[in-house]
Design a protein that fits this description.
61% of the residues lie in helices and 4% in strands. The protein is mainly alpha-helical and 199 residues long. Strands 1-2 form a two-stranded antiparallel sheet.
Amino acid sequence: MPGFFFSHDNMTELNGKEDCKLAKGKVHKKKQKAFGADLKSYLKCMVPHIESGIKTSSSRNVVLSAEEVIQWSQSLEKLLASQSGQGVFREFLKSEFSEENIEFWLACEDYKKTKSDHLHGKAERIYEEFVQSDAVKQINIDYQMREATAKKAQDPTHTSFDEAQKTVYILMERDSYPRFLKSKSYLNLLNQLQTNTSK
């Protein structure tokens, strides 16, 4: 089935080609239009790899199909269940300067899988990075939830961040996700994949 190869390990780095490389590990304050250009650049650079059958430098590549991208529009849950969906949605959130939401959500998902003897260290890192009032990537939760989460993080269990994670999920579901589905970046990606499928 025709589609695009997306590398899960590093969606933004492309075989070292400078003209095809998107910024990695740097925070750039881009206008929203820049996201579409970045995604378009990324997709253009991927076409030769697809047509020639050459995979990108990562050993874990998947083919992104129009069917999968259509499923992303069914629910935020389906979008976040897809590694490629997470990557595309994260790029969209970066364009809106709100990528801390998906980063926190993903950190919580990882935290739930953590062995009990490592919970304290991870809880501390998540609290410092996302929850505390002067956190670099502070999430948008109210004072009471911030305080309750702080207490739970001091004596961590696998559910310490559940309430805050649920709040951030609802925020993304009601706010960012509908805008993502109407964005040029999502619609252009879907259109390009559907065009590629019909060839």
